[in-house]
Specification:
6-stranded mixed β-sheet; 28% helix; alpha/beta; single chain; 6 helices; two-stranded antiparallel sheet; 230 residues
């Protein structure tokens, strides 16, 4: 299976200006994800998708391939990850280069344990999934079976059940995407216009340090994690 590793990093971050190349622990944020991707033995090619010249310079310094400049309409707040991935795939298809799947690696989730990318790829292949995502367990008090939605002035159980599960021990495990890894078959991305498809695999990363950087508070948490690791 031929897999494209894609690192998206646009220049227009508003929450933390210049986030993708801002120094975290003395290194550009982008460098953490580039390092993880380069340590993978199962990614056939790793590229950057960006619209920003400053990010290009850092990426080239890190010896990350920059095959194209992402169009402006795909570098806005409203641009979806699916559109960014499809753009990269179509760029290579026009050159007669095909990939069976794409592994999307967001630089805003910098701390991946060693070997995680290849672990996810192996699980993706073995399970013949449409897609696979890295996830973390949802704390029990946030389990969807204990969450309510507003319904015309009253509350209803978010899962649609009539009766709430009263015992903690009876709650099924629930997970949320951690943003570190998304792997999707090309046919699902292009033909089904989906980042997930129907059969979704997962790898649980709950035992590893984690932050998904979107706000200054998230950045401070990332710095704390680095300090604790040191």
């Amino acid at each position: 299976m031929k897999i494209l590793g894609l690192i998206p990093a646009r220049g227009g971050s508003k929450g933390i200006p210049g986030k993708n190349i801002k120094l975290l622990g003395g290194k550009p944020l982008l460098q953490y994800t580039v390092g993880s991707a380069k340590n993978s033995k199962l990614l056939n090619k790793v590229i950057l998708s960006s619209d920003d010249e400053d990010i290009f310079q850092i990426a080239r310094h890190l010896k990350l391939e920059v095959p194209f400049k992402r169009p402006e309409h795909l570098a806005e707040d409203s641009s979806s990850s699916l559109e960014v991935v499809q753009h990269a795939l179509n760029y290579y298809l026009k050159k007669g280069i095909n990939f069976d799947a794409v592994c999307l690696l967001q630089s805003t989730t910098p701390f991946r344990k060693a070997g995680l990318i290849d672990e996810c790829i192996l699980n993706f292949k073995d399970g013949n999934f449409d897609s696979l995502v890295s996830v973390r367990e949802v704390p029990e008090h946030f389990n969807p079976h204990w969450i309510f939605e507003e319904d015309h002035g009253s509350l209803k159980i978010a899962t649609g059940e009539e009766e709430i599960i009263s015992r903690r021990q009876d709650l099924p495990k629930a997970y949320h995407r951690d943003g570190a890894i998304y792997i999707t078959k090309t046919e699902v991305l292009l033909n089904e216009n989906s980042l997930f498809g129907e059969k979704i695999g997962f790898v649980n990363t709950s035992a590893s340090p984690y932050v998904n950087i979107d706000t200054p508070e998230d950045w401070r948490k990332a710095e704390e994690l680095l300090d604790n690791k040191s």
